[in-house]
Amino acid sequence: MSEDPRNAAVYQNLEKLIKCLIGKDLTDAELSSLVQYAVQKVRNHRYMSTNSFEVSRSVDNLVDRFYYEGMMNQANAMRFLSSLIMNHGLWKEHYEVDVQYSLVDFFIHMTHEPIQTHRRNRLLMEDRLMAIRDAIKAAPDFNEPKDLAEPNLAETEIDWVAFLSQDFIAPPYERYGSDSSLSDWSDDTSSELSSQYEAEIDCKTSLDQKEMAKVYASCRDYPIGTNTFVPEPKRPAGRKKKMFSITQPMCMSFSGIQTRPNWCTLPTLETLQPPRSHRTFSTFVFDPNHLAKTIHSHWWRDDIKIHTLTPTKNPCANFAIAHVQHLNRHARGLLKHSLPKTVNETCLLREIIFMFFEPVDCCFFKVQPDLLQISVRSNVSISSVSHSTLKITLEEEVLPALQAMYQLRQLIKDLLRPTDGMTSTGTLECFAVGLRDLMHPIVQRLLACERQLLDKAAGKTESDLTLIAFVLHMREQFKQLQQLQLLASDAIIEAPPHLKSAYLLTQLFKHTRVHVPHQKMVTALLLMTLKRFCDISDNWWRYAELNDSRLEYIVEYSADASVIGGQGIRERCLAADATPAHEAILAELQGCAFYKLLITYALESGETQDLLASINLLGDLVNTSQQLRPLHKDLIRHFFDELKSFDSCVQPESRPRSSVLGVVRQELRQFDEQLLKHTTQIGNPQLMDIFTQHIRRDQAQRNQMEEQSPSLQVLDILEALDKCTKLQLPQLMPRALGKVLRQRCDLANVYVMRWYRDELLIADHVRFLRHVLMFEADYLIYPFYTNLFRQIEAGMNWASSSDLTTELYDILDVHYPNMACELYVEIISRSRSQSIKVYEALNAVGMVYMMPPALSRIITMKHMISYNNIWRLMLKVKWAAWKLENMHFIRRKDTDLYGPLDLLGLTVRRLEILRFWLINMVNSLHTHLCTHVLQAIGSQFEDELQKILTIRELAKLHQEYLMCLSKHCLLTEEFEEFHSALEQIFHLIFVLDMEWNSCGNYLNVSHALSLDISSDNTLSLDEQDSIFSAEESNKAMEYLALNQVGEIEGTYIRCHQMMASILTSLVYKQDQKFLNSLEVAISSSLPC
Any signal peptide, and if so, which residues (predicted)? Predict the structure, then answer.
């Protein structure tokens, strides 16, 4: 664009156009920004490469938007102007095609959010439009006669003066703002107007051309916002309009219905009232030095030395100056002390009081806001003492209390209104409110001292308040401020929110011990600080909702995959990137008895209430416990009930606190009442009501607050504790808090345990699992597992979860109709299920018990893993016993049972003895598991189950029950060595079974594998018997050569010895006394 020589003219005209549309009240920066915006629009325009259909759609869309927004006049004007440009006869002879669409597209392109801009700047746009019209009418003509040409018929068809005099847009309401940017509607309108008066090069016209420079100058000077014309009456029909006028505005309506309001309707004036007497006012005398004298601004200037006048002419009355002068006289010129500033003692006391409320640098003190420190200035004193003595006195008696008050006020501000990324919690806010309440009597005492000083200065009363009297009067309050500051600095730390809150509570609890001097004050503060904890606990107890948006509660929800629903409750944990300091704080908290009390009841209450909500019993519990008050009120009541041993102990009662400013508030209230009374007699009552509505609203709020009873404050609790006794209190907080929490937990646990026992029948579920998974009902499960053993040994395709589940269901449905359908057999390993070794294939099978969600909180998925481990162990033991019992005695044909044994008979007998050894070992293990472990521990569990009172105790009992079972069944990690030896025994049984079958195949002629090698049927019986005897002898010799009885026997002896040594070590070295009977049985049966 910069290469075109016409760009300079375009840029200049754009600047003029913007000034014309916006006005002269533009800064250079705003004008430059608007010009750059317009230049960017012109630069990015497509010029002649436009699509007529797209332009038509853009116009239609803009018109529709105006209609939908309720701007009917704007929509009609847009439709009329666009049609006028597009249908003009000038474009018929133009060398460019669709040039009219390019012009309309350029106008639309120059707009910026026309609907929104028209809404925001409607009034300003109308003012600018009228300014342009007036400027065009007032501009002189500059056409010379020689430039006159023949009239253009296309232009003379339109009466432009009459057309521009019409009002396409109604004036806006006054409620639209006048802040504006570059107006898109003004762009379109002004562009349309200016295009009608600019002289074109290629066409001839006979219309008078206006001097646009003067038009721009006139419209810039047009007064914006002065269009306060009253509309003229409607002219008669048929009369031609000759004068310019502004019609009344139309009401905007989004529904498309326009109505005309009563515009500029003057209010009806009231009748004149007779004159009244006016109130008299005193004449104000302006004194330019009054403010400087009042605030003592000259005190704070180091370049001005101030010396106050003494009350008497006695030289000792001005001791501060006289002492320095005496030192300078006797210094012999070696040292010269500067004279200190001196003020009267009243000013010093007022500065001290001011510093307690708003610490700033002043005559006596210097403030360091970054460090929250206050220091005493040197070389400033009062007349009666030296500056060094006064400085020491202030530093020792007043400064510690000043710094304590300064730091406490800043702490309260940071806790109640945290800024700069600081975080606060509800517990800390309750603590801050308690600190503020404890500081209230101190503040009132300071204000009372200031009132004495003000009355003394006004000459109302005589006051003997001096610095020494002030320090003695406020000594106890100053001590209390320091105690509060030390307590706050010790109890508040930088840590995660839950650590902040818990650490604050535990530190306050430590300060409630008997030996702490300010025990009662901290006890009252602790009771108030516990309010947030009680509110969260109470909300959780009543609604089962953990309303902890600031993450300050000591427990949290956790994702627990072992629980149906995937959500459990646990103690709130630290983040993964927690610092060692935070871990040390958590360890310190976990060692505090008060924290243990809070966490124990929080976990128990949370789990119980969540369970009640999940089984729809929470409503019944809440309705039953309507007599219970909020937890915090119950805590205070129980705490004072524990103090009933003191005769004068009473419950704290809330009451309004008196204030020194009560007189001022009463005067302000009377002034407001008088103001409301007088305003009702002035002017329009409705207008006066509008002016005084804020006063009435404040009065209504004040009356409402007075009708409500004030909330209980720390001071009310502290006063009740002081009335009980003047001695130290016993540490009763844990007892009172535990009692009120236990009361709620017990009430909820009654519902939970009743539902577990009566509705859920947890004892029946546990008994069912014991009967099925621990084979206490072996007579029921025997057909199922024996059939499973046969299928595995036969190599059949047995690993079908549905078939096994159906078979188990058919067996259990008769005896457990309500629970059999919830037990499923699951194949957990396809690779192991392909094994023909039964003890290996059984590791591929597991049980799944579909429990209700409430029961899954007690019997979790982790517990089902333990149940399955015990079930698989029992299956292996059952298989070993079943397999050994089904090995039938091997008997050879035509042998004497009571005759002497040959070599083959001795080998078979050794095989049978080995079978007896294994039966003895397996029976010993089976007896230990079934009698001493499963049945004994299960009976003990059922007995303890009836004594359980809480859900946490129930879950803990079941957890301990399963842990005890796993340990006594030798399934834990400490018995891994014994478990390996037991697996060797199972493998040895598998090998013995194969050897047993092999022996039968060789010695039993009726066996399917015995081949009849004789094919000659013509032999006699004696010949056949001789041939059979020879064959039997050959088979016997072959078996004697190939048998592995000796190897099996040696392996068993080694395994038996190893198991005996392991059990002996467990019993006598590791003190596992429950294995005593098993160890005796195994060790006493050890083969020689």
Answer: none
Tokens of 165: 């005099």
Cβ proximity of 340 and 320 under 8 Å: yes
Distances (CA, A) of 238 to 160, 231, 235, 241, 604: 20, 19, 9, 9, 92
Owner of token pair 């013509």: 1018
Q: What gap in Å lies between CA 550 and CA 497, rounded to an integer?
A: 7
The Cα–Cα gap between 86 and 89 comes to: 9
SS3 847: strand
Domain ranges of the chain: 5-44, 52-138, 299-492, 544-653+709-754, 760-886, 888-893+902-935+971-1004+1033-1087
Amino acid at 1008: A
Q: What is the pLDDT of residues 367-405, one digit of tens each?
A: 998 888 999 988 888 888 888 899 999 999 999 999 999
Query: Does residue 307 sit in helix, strand or coil?
Result: strand
Closest CA to 210 of 161, 163, 146, 149: 161
433 vs 345: CA distance, rounded Å: 34
DSSP annotation string for 392-457 = HHIIIIIHHHHHHHHHHHHHHHHHHS--TT----HHHHHHHHHHHHHHHHHHHHHHHHHHHHHHHH
Beta-carbon contacts of 562 under 8 Å, excluding residues fewer than 6 positions away, are 860, 861, 862, 863
In this prediction, residues 861-871 reach a mean pLDDT of 89
Strand partners, 556: 570
The alpha carbon of 70 is separated from its chain's Cα centroid by a whole number of angstroms, namely 44
CATH number of 760-886: 1.20.120.1900
The SS3 assignment for 258 reads coil
C-alpha 805/C-alpha 940 separation (Å) is: 31
Which of these, 265, 223, 463, lies nearest to 346 by C-alpha position?
463
CA of residue 263 relative to chain centroid, distance = 54
Q: Which residues lie closer than 8 Å to 657 by C-beta, 6 or more apart? A: 440, 710, 713, 715
Place of tokens 């399917």: 1008
327: CB partners within 8 A, 6+ apart? 335, 337
Q: State the sign of the Cα–Cα–Cα–Cα dihedral 133, 138, 139, 141.
A: positive
- In the predicted model, what is the mean pLDDT of residues 245-264? 44
- Contact in structure between 110 and 38 (CB atoms under 8 Å): yes
- Which helix H or strand E contains 826, and what residues bound it? strand 823-827
**Whole-angstrom Cα distance, residue 663 to residue 661?**
5
Model pLDDT, residue 409? 93
CB under 8 Å to 473, separation ≥6 — which residues? Answer: 445, 449, 465
Question: 397-406, 835-844, 883-892: which has the minimum mean pLDDT?
Answer: 883-892
Residue 475: pLDDT band with limits 50, 70, 90: very high
Residues 358, 405 contacting (CB under 8 angstroms): no
> How many of the other CB atoms lie within 10 Å of CB of 506?
19
Phi-psi region of 795 (alpha: psi -120 to 50; beta: other; left: phi over 0): left
Q: Give me Rg for the CA atoms of the chain.
A: 52
The token pair at 493 is: 């730390």
* Distance in Å from the first CA to the final CA of the chain: 113
Q: Is the pTM of this model over 0.90?
A: no
Answer whether 865's CB lies under 8 Å from 873's CB: no
In sequence order, the β-bridge partners of residue 845 are: 827
CB-CB neighbours of 380 under 10 Å: 22
Q: How many residues does the chain have?
A: 1088
Dist CA 847 CA 865 (whole Å):
9
Closest Cα to residue 73, out of 251, 235, 229, 230?
A: 251
